[in-house]
Amino acid sequence: MSRETHVVGFRVGRETYGVPITSLHEIVRVPEITAVPDAPDYLEGVINLRGKIVSVVDLRKRFGLSAKLDRKSRILVVEHRARLVGMIVDSASEVLKIPEGDIEAAPTMMKEAGLDCVTGLGKFQDRLIILLDIGKVLGARDLRNGALPEKRSENVLVSNVNSEKTAGVKAEVETGSKSASAGK
Fold it and tell me: Is 166 found in the same domain as 128?
């Protein structure tokens, strides 16, 4: 008997993708999403999923497509680095059982083009399923529940400006207090 890989199939744009069923926590309809200031464009915000705060990524935006939500849109809640993360997809299909003999490694050209999140291509009922590594789709921009990716260059700049302002204020306060004490 041949071994099979079980993946959850979903659509983003015209393509069908698959992620390992073992990483799926659940599939939910898209609820109201709370936006988070200064988040990257693809990070829609956070949702409250039965008391747990879950970051939500729009895979259309993450893959360079324009955003589109409709009644078929779903959030795939997956486990990533022992935390839950939601991925907005156009639709979620079914569990696909792909024989291992029908899965090919990602073409070299994809990897050379920086598409290292594609682990392979599965042949299923006359169509190709793009198999994704969730860690690589989400990992480059470390998404943690309640914590958002930092924009390092801006944070450093703001931090340096604030440090200079703070140092200037401290100097003025110290000088002023010394002058005030000297005048007493």
Answer: no
